Amino acid sequence: MKGILASTKSFFVWVNKFLRPYLSAYWLSILLILIFVLQNHFFNFWLGIFPGHHIIRRTVVTIALGLFLFGAPALFNFRLKYLILSAISFFVSLIFIVQFLYYSYSGGFLQASALLYLGQGATLFGTVKILLDYRLLFFAVGPLAVLATLIFSCRGYMVEKVVLKKEKLIAGGFIILFTILGYGYLFFREYTEAGNVTHIYAYNKLYDVNALVSKLGVINFSFGDVLAFGLRVDEVTASDAGLVEAWIKQRPATAINKNNFGIAQKRNLILIQVESLENAVIGKQVAGQEITPYLNKLVEAGLYFSNFYAPIGPGTTADTEFSVLNSLYPLPNTVAFIDYAYNHYLALPSLLKNNGYHTYALHGDVASFWNRANIYPQLGYEHWLSRQDFVTPREIGVYGLGDQDFFNQSISKLQSFPQPFMATLITLTSHTPFNLPADLVSLNSAEVNNLDWLQKQYLQSINYVDKAIGEFIANLKTAGLYDNSLIFIYGDHTSFTNISKALEVNDAVFGDLQYTKVPLIILAPGVDLKGINSKPASQVDIYPTAANLLGAEIPVTIFGRDLMADTDGLVIHRNLVSGTVKSVLTDNLAYHSSGDGIFEKGNCLDVFDKKVLAVENCRALYDQAVQAVMVSDLMIKGDIIITH
Predict the structure, then answer these.
(1) Are strands 537-538 and 308-309 parallel, antiparallel or unpaired?
(2) β-pair type (485-491, 289-290)
(3) Left if phi > 0, otherwise alpha if psi is -120 to 50, otherwise beta: which for 271?
(4) Is there a contact between 625 and 584 (Cβ–Cβ < 8 Å)?
(5) What is the pLDDT of residues 549-570, one digit of tens each?
(6) Residue 572: helix, strand or coil by DSSP?
(7) What is the DSSP string of 98-121?
(8) Tens digits of residue pLDDT in 346-376
(9) How far is CA 308 from the centre of its chain?
(10) Could you give all domains of the chain from N- to C-terminal order, each with its CATH number?
(11) Averaged over 583-595, what is the pLDDT?
């Protein structure tokens, strides 16, 4: 140890002797800036975010930010300098680590608006454990460098030069000048390439967050996101309300299958929302075993939609609930369940309550999770049962109440409800990190080499949930509820495990759509609703489909379509943060935007033969999608209800 300290002391003596006149006051700042630049580059490289793209632009703008963050504190006195550098370097490292973990989990970046939902992220702590990576240590180098330098300075191994007032002015001027030049270079490059610079931080024109991080680096992106969030104004004007009303009046009436109207009238409606259930697992096997044997049987017994999508926003499960119950599109940069919980909604529970139904929601989490206790009354639920209404015989998974226990206990509760009723049941066990007790593991996946550990865990969880659903359906029959019910079973969102690639499922028109495909199965005993339907559809279509089958008139403000109507399906995917249209899918055409969001640079395909068409063939389709999501957003943010 003494030898190491002696060698270190000799090194710093050498530095002081030869470099002190130039660097003694600023060398730590320079070191932190170099580390900062490398961290930004390695962040993109390790996560595969266009690592080789925009490297000069990213370097210049990262140095500019680094000079501001780590250069300016060098102008203060010793104590204040190290205090500021310690705080900044720690905060920057924290952003790197959190964003790295979040992107590894979800494929997106944590936004400032997510700070409102920190309470909803408690269940992700178990997931964080499996995402921990030795590379995270590199993002902690900055604070360690500050601490080490402070220690060596206090022990006399380093002697820092006192910065004169004139030198401070020169250094401060250099920092300001280079910061301006750095960001000026960025804006100049954007202007010469795109003809404007507004889409750098104006999120209403942002199309690809990954491309933005490629240009700016993740710290610049995070700071810009906080700034944009702070300046965000969601006020909806009278002209916006007029635009919504005009759009509603001029669009065609929601297409329905008139032959199906009321064929399930007065039946109970049971919606089963399955956590992280991807369509890729349906009909698939692992080591000769079916992953979802019970769901596979239900596919044969009912009507299965094989081209069904979950275009969620940052609210994941809550966004699915919102879309299913309201037939509105999720917001891209916030969660309606929290920010707009007290709106007036023409939701499916409200519609059915007005048609003589009793309405219930059942889930095994606390009532406050995703603010359900506040928004459920606005959606028309009369009663909601949560964790305190169930017994937890054993702790399973991240939430505690296993799906088998949840479904088994739900049967007696459903039997006690006056009929007809609407009941939504939300599963929990297949939530990340997919922890399942050994005695509940059924699949022999240990020797399957093409699956990583997390994917195997996921498949075990889905296999368990599949069994729980199979038992629930059998119990519905025993309880005498099955034959008098209309049942929808659907996945809420992707598993974030890349399972479709591992199972070699690649049946989506565009690659990024593959991960949002979830199954939808409709069971209507005694009614001729069977087979496989490949019409493109999404969760906004459940509302009008269920309402039409139950004989309820559909409000004019919904955005979905009756899945059995003789009309084209429509699926719209949006970019997070900006809400701009990323892809649009119909029976015949498909459009996918380019990274920079310029319509003419996007791809237009013929769905049947995958033939690339001139992009103008998709112009009307794209404009239709842009109008739809804009109006949906305005209706939510402005609490606009139109009933005529």
Answers:
(1) parallel
(2) unpaired
(3) beta
(4) yes
(5) 999 999 988 999 999 998 889 9
(6) strand
(7) HHHHHHHHHSS---GGGGGGGGGG
(8) 999 999 999 999 999 999 987 778 888 889 9
(9) 18
(10) 2-231 (no CATH), 260-560 (3.40.720.10)
(11) 93
User: What is the torsion angle, in degrees rounded to the nearest 10, for the CA atoms of residue 394, residue 399, residue 403 and residue 406?
Assistant: 80
| Mean pLDDT, residues 26-54 taken together | 86
My answer on whether omega of the bond before 437 falls inside 30° of 0, hence cis, is no
- At 483, list the tokens: 């034959």
For residues 392 and 402, give the distance between their C-alpha atoms in angstroms, rounded to a whole number: 8
CA–CA–CA angle 263, 269, 275 (5° rounding): 130
Entry pTM = 0.78
Bond prior to 433 in cis (omega within 30° of 0): yes
**Pairwise CA distance, residues 432 & 44, whole Å:** 25
> What is the token pair recorded at 3?
């030898």
Interatomic CA distance for residues 385 and 425, integer angstroms: 10
How far apart CA 355 and CA 578 sit, in angstroms, is 38
How many Cα atoms within 13 Å fall on the side-chain side of residue 406?
32
Mean pLDDT of 297-307: 97
Where does 67-164 have alpha helices with state H? 78-106, 125-131, 141-154
CA distances from 126 to 123, 130, 406, 431, 486 (A): 7, 7, 21, 10, 36
The predicted model gives 199-216 an average pLDDT of: 58
Rounded to whole angstroms, the Cα distance separating 417 from 269 reads 12
| Cβ-Cβ contacts under 8 Å for 230 (sequence gap 6 or more) | 112
| Alpha helices, H only, 518-584 | 542-550
Residue 185: the pLDDT is 84
385 contacts 302 by C-beta, under 8 angstroms: no
Handedness of CA 454, 459, 462, 468 (dihedral sign): negative
- The three-state secondary structure class of 597 is coil
Type and span of the H or E element at 273 = strand 268-274
